[in-house]
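re: ur msg from earlier - yeah i can do the tetrahydrodeoxyuridine complex, just paste it... oh wait u already did. ok heres what im feeding in:
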Amino acid sequence: MKENQIQIHYNTYQCEELSESYKNLMDRSIEAQHNAYAPYSNFKVGAAILLEDGTIFTGNNQENAAFPSGLCAERVAIFACSAQNPNINIKVIAISANSEKIDINTVLAPCGSCRQAMYEYESKQNAPIKVLLKGPDNEVVEFLCVADLLPLVFHCDGLKKVR
Ligand code: THU
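and the outut:
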């Protein structure tokens, strides 16, 4: 038996330390929370995507009485973005959450399905997508690429025919 370790890298900032463009992107993700449809969880998530040409796309979580039919903010945003701009690279995605009923005292960490979905576009464009996660107390956590958020990610190479 051999024990192995995987290290992940991330940076932490105070909001004020972000560049104007990233600060604006995080603000857009916070704004996007307002249109979340979250009557079941009361947990409102916003995502804002910055494309290479400067366009910003936003999304928010959309819930459903049949729970699994709802979708997280990250996937709402990235699927809409790719549906409308399939050939423009994604540079950054900023994600934030808020709730009137739940005390959010940790960083908003995207779920596994959203990490896998975001990775798909990083892999497709063959260029990193930076991820900014809003934490409590004005903190922002930065991952330089989606792959850093998903060690041992399932990659499309796994689907290539070998025979
Ligand atoms: N949610 C997101 O939108 N993004 C995440 O990364 C985690 C969870 C949503 C799904 C559901 O509407 C609510 O938050 C509670 O899980």
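cool cool. Strands lie at 11-14, 44-51, 56-60, 90-98, 130-134, 139-143. ping me if u need the other ligands too
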